[in-house]
Every structure is written in structure tokens, then in C-alpha cells.
Design goal:
102 residues; mainly alpha; two-stranded antiparallel ribbon; 2 strands; Sulfotransferase_dom; EC 2.8.2.-; P-loop_NTPase
């Protein structure tokens, strides 16, 4: 499950996650809008609105910096090509042999 997939098909991906966790949604839960409710509660817009995420700090870093636009590819506005290459190398090294796709 990748961020791009979640953004493209949020309903399908949250149902996939529930199935993976072995807590699939019942037909009744889906019909009653539970998937939509969860998506709203977990939305970036909602999470950004919590006072704790506007004012608190973790390791001297404002929590609000963890909430940007939530757009696929927005990282390109923050990372240089050198930083991108470095991260790619680290991720490839760490995921090597895991079966996870990068």
C-alpha cells in the first residue's frame, strides 16, 4: 500500500487494510458509511485541525511541519536532487531482500 494508491482509491485501500488486519468491514458497516467516517477522521484536513498538531513540539520540532499539502509528489518542492538520490539509496539498501517494492 503506497500513498499514491491511498490518494487514488481511498475506499478500496482502507477496505484492503481492514482485510489485512483481519477486521473486514461488514456489509452493514459499509452501507452505514463507516468507511467514509474513518476516511474523514483520518483525513489530513482533520488531523491538521487538532490543536495539539498546531501547537505541540516533538524533539524541538513543531508538529505542524509534519502536515503539508498531502499531495502526491509534493516532496519535490522540498528535496534537492541530491537529497532524493540519497534517500533512494538508503531505502533500496534497507528494503533489499524484503520483497517490498520501491
Amino acid at each position: 500500500m503506497r500513498y499514491e494508491e491511498i490518494k487514488a482509491e481511498p475506499h478500496d485501500q482502507i477496505k484492503r487494510l481492514a482485510n489485512f488486519l483481519r477486521y473486514p468491514f461488514t456489509k452493514e458497516e459499509e452501507e452505514n458509511g463507516l468507511v467514509d467516517q474513518i476516511l474523514e477522521l483520518c483525513s489530513l484536513r482533520n488531523l491538521k485541525s487538532f490543536e495539539v498538531n498546531k501547537t505541540q513540539q516533538v524533539n524541538k520540532v513543531d508538529c505542524k511541519v509534519y502536515f503539508r499539502k498531502g499531495e502526491v509528489g509534493d516532496w519535490k518542492n522540498y528535496l534537492t536532487p541530491e537529497m532524493e538520490n540519497k534517500i533512494d539509496m538508503i531505502v533500496q539498501e534497507k528494503l533489499q531482500g524484503s520483497g517490498l517494492k520501491f
